[in-house]
Amino acid sequence: MTIKNGALKxxxxxxxxxTGASGGIGAAIAERFASVGMNVVIHYMKSHEKAxxxxxRCMVYSxxxxxxxxxxxxxxxxxxxxxxxxNHGMKPDILVNNAxxxxxxxxxxVSEAEWDEVMAVNVKGTFLCSQAFMxxxxxxxxxxxxxxxxxxxxxxxxxxxxxxxxxxxxNAFTKALAQEVAPSGVTVNAVAPxxxxxxxxxxxxxxxxxxxxxxxxxxxxxxxxEISSLVYFLALPESGYINGQxxxxxxxxxx
Length: 255
Fold this sequence. Notes:
InterPro entries: NAD(P)-bd_dom_sf, Sc_DH/Rdtase_CS, SDR, SDR_fam. The protein has helices at about 25-35, 50-60, 75-85, 110-140, 150-155, 160-180, 205-215, 225-235, and strands spanning about 1-5, 5-10, 15-20, 40-45, 65-70, 95, 145-150, 185-190, 245. By secondary structure, the protein is of the alpha/beta class. The protein has a single domain (about 1-245), classed as NAD(P)-binding Rossmann-like Domain (Rossmann fold, 3-Layer(aba) Sandwich), CATH 3.40.50. The strands form 2 sheets. It has a 7-stranded parallel β-sheet, with helices on both faces. Strands 1-2 form a two-stranded antiparallel ribbon. Helix 4 (about 110-140) packs parallel to helix 6 (about 160-180).
């Protein structure tokens, strides 16, 4: 249950929007929230069929499920998405900013266009979505924003300077916005996973994956459901005193 204007709001009346939810961590997050009966909005940009597959898995539960497409680099498209959700009675009480692009390569090889694109999706998209959906949370004096960051936003990574920069920006955004909206009953936290078994690691071959697992004290990659469980916990009413935190589930890889 969530709290609206000081009163309890039933799980079935609670709506969560997950950006970039057509696969990987985003899909796991959508299914986790759907499993308790919340209304789930699955955002995607181009992966229409994959988003529908996630929606079908969510529909076995009791909450409403909706898919919506938007380019998160565009304020206009985000505003249209917000209006569409409102027209369907799906104002998000919880926003999970999960959408993001990865980038692997030497900084000297990064083009200006690549820099702008990854920054626009990862950082600007988080900013625009938070700005668009905060007013409803503030007006009802309850809301949760959870930003999906990365362990590289904490410690950085060679050959991932661009990606690390965007995630470091998200971490700073999280800490600052948390202070701004805390008086309105809204919390903002970030989950910064280590290596997770998703297609984002497809650029690594089998040997590189094995070497990576050997570096991690837990001896394995994280499962998407392990990340989604932490996101879900941070969205609970009971987590209201956890605010402005960057929590990194990484198997002891970075402490």
